[in-house]
């Protein structure tokens, strides 16, 4: 079995400073990071919102000092959530024509 302690330790060091957040694989959403239980009893950085990361590995998270933009993370840290600018899936009920 491979000892993952050095990998977990390196990942913790990258995200250990206050104000360091994460993006997933060069994504645009900035997530808050916390330590979570990993394999072999190690702790490793994970997204505070627990959004899944396909094929997860510590290298999937890239550090950033940009402000958190993930609405789920912001709710968990007590930050203000900016209203969504997402378009409505369905219209408001009125029909043109």
Task: Looking at this protein, list some descriptive labels.
alpha+beta; two-stranded antiparallel sheet; 4 strands
Describe the structure.
- By secondary structure, the chain is α+β, with helices and mostly antiparallel strands.
- The protein has one domain (5-77).
- Helices cover 19% and strands 19% of the residues.
- It has two helices and four strands, in the order αββββα.
- The chain has helices at residues 5-15, 71-77; strands spanning 21-24, 33-37, 43-47, 61-64.
- Strand 2 (33-37) and strand 3 (43-47) form a beta hairpin.
- It starts with a helix and ends in a 20-residue tail after the last helix.
- 16% of the residues are buried.
- The mean pLDDT is 82.
Measured between the Cα atoms of the first and last residue, the distance is: 68 Å
Mean pLDDT figure:
82
Main-sheet strand order equals 1-4
Helix run count = 2
Q: Biggest β-sheet, characterized?
A: 2 strands, antiparallel
Over all CA atoms, what is the radius of gyration?
17 Å
Based on Cα principal axes, name the global outline. globular
Order of helices and strands: HEEEEH
Instruction: Name the beta content range.
Output: 15-25%
Could you say how many structural domains there are in total? 1
Low-confidence parts, pLDDT < 50 over ≥5 residues? none
Structural class, from helix and strand content? alpha+beta
How many distinct beta strands?
4
Share of residues in helices: 10-25%
């Amino acid at each position: 079995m491979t000892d993952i302690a050095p990998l977990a330790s390196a990942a913790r060091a990258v995200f250990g400073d206050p104000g360091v957040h994460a993006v997933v694989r060069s994504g645009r959403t900035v997530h808050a990071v916390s330590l979570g239980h990993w394999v072999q009893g190690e702790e490793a950085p994970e997204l505070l919102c627990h959004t899944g990361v396909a094929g997860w590995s510590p290298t999937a998270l890239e550090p950033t000092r940009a402000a958190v933009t993930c609405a789920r993370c912001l709710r968990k840290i007590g930050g203000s959530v900016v209203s969504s600018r997402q378009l409505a899936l369905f219209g408001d009920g009125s029909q043109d024509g």
